[in-house]
């Protein structure tokens, strides 16, 4: 199983202070040394984390292939074609969302997505579509002749968190998932079944299958057991964990510095 590490959240931390630290480019060689197979970044229309200058520097200097997520906005696609990342993953984008909330609406944006894919391919960029795990979405992806699909695992991850973590007792409880354990269990089984069936369908059609969104140290096991999925893109949980795995040495370093 290949791992793409999404480093947007390093830029999010930088944007909290609007300074030049931490620089997401600095994470690239650490990701490589740690065994990551790919760097994933999202150049959003609102530039809330990754900026054009980050995307340019990362694409120019990364030893790992760069998977750039973006919307089908024409200005963004022009920029992306000039940057020439290894792969582009087209995602839906909505200004008010905290993070990408679901897969692309392929049915209603078929022609525009088709044109975007053509343009990316003319620029020799591999194309992936971020889609919900459904039969229909795979059929449409196949018609669009995409190289890859990335199955949205956010629904699975949300159900998993409401069932097996303390999320429902916190201020971030997901209201529409405040259901009995029995109901959540059958929803979790169904969401896993959808992911399995969609990956199998896509893989049989010759489409490479990735998955991502909301995957973490608890919920990833079920997903990596699905044999048709060859790659996972994971961001928030890895960056969140690195805060704690690195906190002790960061404090020790500062303590020794101020006591020198
Ligand atoms: N894949 C896609 C297409 C995404 O939009 C994101 C979030 O930017 C991820 C993977 C990573 O999600 P997470 O940060 O929840 O691991």
From TrEMBL:
Residue stretches in coiled coil: 167-194
Any Pfam family: PdxJ
Stated family: Belongs to the PNP synthase family.
Protein name: Pyridoxine 5'-phosphate synthase
Top-level taxonomic group: Bacteria
Self-association state and partner proteins as the record states: Homooctamer; tetramer of dimers.
GO MF annotation list: pyridoxine 5'-phosphate synthase activity
Annotated active site: 42, 69, 213
Alphabetic keyword roster: Coiled coil, Cytoplasm, Pyridoxine biosynthesis, Transferase
Site feature location: Transition state stabilizer: 150
Gene source species: Arcobacter porcinus
Sequence positions that bind 3-amino-2-oxopropyl phosphate: 6, 17, 214, 235-236
Compartments where located: Cytoplasm
Chief location category: cytoplasm
E.C. code: 2.6.99.2
Swiss-Prot/TrEMBL catalytic activity: 3-amino-2-oxopropyl phosphate + 1-deoxy-D-xylulose 5-phosphate = pyridoxine 5'-phosphate + phosphate + 2 H2O + H(+)
Associated pathway: Cofactor biosynthesis; pyridoxine 5'-phosphate biosynthesis; pyridoxine 5'-phosphate from D-erythrose 4-phosphate: step 5/5
Keyword Transport belongs to the record: no
Keyword Coiled coil: yes
Enzyme category, top tier: transferase
CDD domains membership: PNPsynthase
Role played: Catalyzes the complicated ring closure reaction between the two acyclic compounds 1-deoxy-D-xylulose-5-phosphate (DXP) and 3-amino-2-oxopropyl phosphate (1-amino-acetone-3-phosphate or AAP) to form pyridoxine 5'-phosphate (PNP) and inorganic phosphate.
Binding site for 1-deoxy-D-xylulose 5-phosphate: 8-9, 44, 49, 99
């Amino acid at each position: 199983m290949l791992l793409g590490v999404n480093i947007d959240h390093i830029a999010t931390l930088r944007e909290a202070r609007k300074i030049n630290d931490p620089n997401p480019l600095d994470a690239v060689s650490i990701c490589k040394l740690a065994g990551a197979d790919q760097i994933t970044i999202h150049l959003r229309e609102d530039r809330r984390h990754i900026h054009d200058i980050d995307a340019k520097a990362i694409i120019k200097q990364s030893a790992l292939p760069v998977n750039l997520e973006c919307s089908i906005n024409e200005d963004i696609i022009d920029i992306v074609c000039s940057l020439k990342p290894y792969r582009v993953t087209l995602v839906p984008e909505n200004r008010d969302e905290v993070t990408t909330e679901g897969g692309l609406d392929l049915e209603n944006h078929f022609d525009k997505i088709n044109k975007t894919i053509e343009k990316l391919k003319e620029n020799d960029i591999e194309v992936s579509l971020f889609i919900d795990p459904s039969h229909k979405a795979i059929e449409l992806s196949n018609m669009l002749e995409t190289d890859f699909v990335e199955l949205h695992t956010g629904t699975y991850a949300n159900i998993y968190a409401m069932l097996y973590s303390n999320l429902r007792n916190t201020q971030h409880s997901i209201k529409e998932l405040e259901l009995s354990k029995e109901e959540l269990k059958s929803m979790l089984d169904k969401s896993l079944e959808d992911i399995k069936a969609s990956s199998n369908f896509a893989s049989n059609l010759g489409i490479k299958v990735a998955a991502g969104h909301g995957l973490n140290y608890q919920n990833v096991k079920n997903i990596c057991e699905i044999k048709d999925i060859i790659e996972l893109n994971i961001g928030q949980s890895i960056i969140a964990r690195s805060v704690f795995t690195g906190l002790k040495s960061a404090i020790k370093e500062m303590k020794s510095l101020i006591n020198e």
